[in-house]
Amino acid sequence: xxxxxYTYYAGIDIGGTKCAVLLGRVCHTDGSIExxxxxxxxxxxxxxxxxxxxxxxxxxxxMLAEHEIKAIGISCGGPLDSRKGLILSPPNLPGxxxxxxxxxxxxxxxxxxxxxxxxxxxxxxxxxFGAGKDxxxxxxxxxxxxxxAGLILDGRLYAGISDLAGEVGHIRLSDQGPVGFTKxxxxxxxCSGGGIAQVGRTAALxxxxxxxxxxxxxxxxxxxxITAKSIAEAANxxxxxxxxxxxEVGHYLGKFCAIVIDLLNPEKIVIGSVFARSEHLIxxxxxxxxxxxxxxxxxxxxxxxxxxxxxxxxxxxxxxVASL
Length: 324
Known about the structure:
Blueprint: E1 2-3, E2 6-14, E3 18-27, E4 33-42, H1 49-55, H2 57-66, E5 69-76, E6 80-81, E7 86-87, H3 101-109, E8 113-117, H4 118-129, E9 138-143, E10 147-153, E11 156-158, E12 179-180, E13 183-184, H5 187-191, H6 193-209, H7 228-236, H8 240-264, E14 268-271, H9 274-293, H10 296-301, E15 303-306, H11 313-322
Parallel strand pairs: 2-5, 5-8, 9-14, 14-15
Antiparallel strand pairs: 1-2, 2-3, 3-4, 6-7, 9-10, 10-11, 12-13
Helix pairs in contact: 4-11, 6-8, 7-8, 8-9
């Protein structure tokens, strides 16, 4: 478990398209984490859950034989029940219904096993090893295909009674607006990658109907190919319409952050993916709303920062769950 100044953990990252098995260690001296081994393979959704889990043994068994593994951590898309160790029918894993993954692996390997949904797992990763290190209260937000959050409150992960704490993408910010998380005008509708594309399509359509064009959409045929990335590229090239789209996104992200700051009074809000890549397009409009709408003392105490772990966050997330 602890050897040569390190504690060793195993991690499993389960996704609808791929799964990864990881070996990592945490240094006792500086608290840093290192991924030592990583094995990834496409997810065989037809194989069924327990056949897939048994397939991890090819990698886990040698790790456990060679190292003193303190625990195994699992990061998986929800819904799940982290207290009972159950995976509960994730939409991207058909047939994974009431899978007792923690009990199954603990009986197999005789080491502690923990499971968290992927947003919570990423929150723990950024809290322990990334932009939220050394904080006691932190909110981590995914800002990718969707928009969700993981909550670290008073030095611990807060998951809620149904493991649904942090589903902030469902919060409605406006009665009108793009649809995200089944709700018009939601945080996910305005601030996710898909939401930004919707905002961009609306802006481009207005320009096209007025006889013009913009840097990311030259004609009606291009409307369906608009993405958050293509809008960002146009904005970085100086396109006024694209810049305005990201200012609108920043405005609504600021509204969301203001709610979080006033409600939870965190030290940091850490935002990944789109924000980490396009902070320079978002920050000014976001900060303007925060400064205007928040309780000043709460706003002053909280920093909104980009995530630090980048593409490694999925791997570190699974290992971080093991370290809880």
